[in-house]
Specification:
4-stranded antiparallel sheet, homodimer, Rossmann fold, DNA-binding, 5-stranded parallel sheet, elongated, 2 domains, about 230 residues, alpha/beta
DNA sequence: TCATGCTGTTAATCTAATGTTAACCCGATT
DNA sequence: AATCGGGTTAACATTAGATTAACAGCATGA
């Protein structure tokens, strides 16, 4: 995953600082927390970061001042400002320096994380150049669920919509049991005898399609459901 | 130069729409204003834009819905949403779609322009790599979508506008599935039985036009859409 | 071990989607 | 008004995909 991004967080309030740090760490980011602008700048010089999140109001050196210094060193690193109020002057000043985003406290953590994610994604254009289509690696196969294609070496098979939907579910649950009932409701929107039988037909097809790699198996758990397994 | 950026503005309120349009025009941007999501989508299909500014609340098709359709055609174009309130759910939804910014009405015009400028500046680097020429290479054909011409060796065929629009969409999605619904909404502005049938007629025509190069195929994905493929 | 309900598999069947051609419609042009 | 270009609608043919059927193994618990 591209989640190993390194983030420098500069926030003087200990409580808020730790909360934000945790939020980000849970998402898999590497986070370094510093408590004022001066320390923040020193830390920034120590390592290469992908993103800086700066509190505006801080002792020693405020967020804008820090941001200007950071910009002198790195003109392109994404910056997010945190501010207590939504003062327009603050916002404009931040944008002038080149903020990529601007978040007012208190903030919604889900929104905050989405913004961080969006900004990191934007700055990682080379890595994301694959157009973010959902491609699953299944053994030696690549399954593109958006384009309904299943590739094995040089061969590419066009799957149907339903085949794709089912395979996608299986991929998302690799090594976990997927209950028949779940598949039925997700794909057909209801669960009945014939839906079940139809599902079995699809499972047979998918097994056939995936047959070239013997490490792959769609295992039946009697009376419960199926499990996609890939041995290594 | 940077200021010739083309902006698509979709805003149903006439007054606000004109105000924003003027603001942007004064800055030297080329701005096209449309009044609802449906018209916005069709206009988006007509030209290449550098930025879209979308009102969230609109008749016919709201800003989010429009944004999702736009994203399917162009995964990277910057999007700015305008919203009356700062509803958190709205913000989160917007970010999920991939908003680059989010502006609540009423807004400060200076801030607004700075944001627009910042976003355009950011996306400019990527543009350099993007070929701005409207000529697509399709196998042994050259398709000039601006001039509606399709060349094969020495022969040049004049396409109609609709033929061009559809072929352009297909070209932009080479090797990817293009949903019928998207084509219908992009080209016709609505999706109905007869639009679908008309589309099939066009597909037949395009297949005929492209028939000289056997490596080219417009593949149908049953119940989903079409995919332009060029084997190598 | 038997009985019974599940599952695997293949093939027949049904239906909606698509392919194709031609007739039709309608606005623009002569 | 006649023609033309372009698109839509109609009509019919064809096909693809999903469902249903049929039958053959299996698994599991009594």
């Amino acid at each position: 995953m591209s989640n190993s991004a390194k983030i420098l967080l500069v926030e003087d309030d200990d409580n808020l600082g730790f909360v934000i740090q945790d939020l980000l760490k849970v998402e898999g980011y590497k986070v370094h927390l510093r408590k004022d602008g001066k320390e923040g700048l020193m830390q920034f010089n120590q390592e290469d970061y992908d993103l800086c999140i700066l509190d505006v109001m801080m002792p020693k050196k405020d967020g804008f001042s820090l941001a200007r210094d950071i910009r002198k060193i790195n003109a392109h690193i994404p910056l997010i400002f945190l501010t207590a109020k939504s003062m327009t002057e603050d916002r404009v000043e931040g944008l002038r320096i080149g903020a990529d985003d601007y978040i007012t406290k208190p903030f919604d953590s889900e929104e905050f994380l989405l913004r961080v994610k969006a900004i990191l994604k934007r700055s990682q254009k080379e890595e994301e150049s694959t157009d973010s289509s959902a491609v699953y690696e299944v053994g030696a196969y690549q399954f593109d669920s958006d384009n309904f294609t299943l590739k094995y070496q040089s061969e590419e098979r066009q799957l149907t919509k339903k085949e794709s939907e089912i395979l996608k579910l299986l991929c998302q649950h690799t090594d976990k049991v997927l209950e028949r009932e779940i598949i039925a409701n997700m794909v057909w929107g209801d669960d009945s005898y014939f839906v079940g039988r139809s599902m079995d037909v699809f499972i047979t097809k998918l097994r056939k399609y995936l047959g070239s790699d013997p490490r792959i198996s769609i295992v039946n758990i009697h009376g419960v459901g199926f499990k996609l397994q890939v041995e290594d």
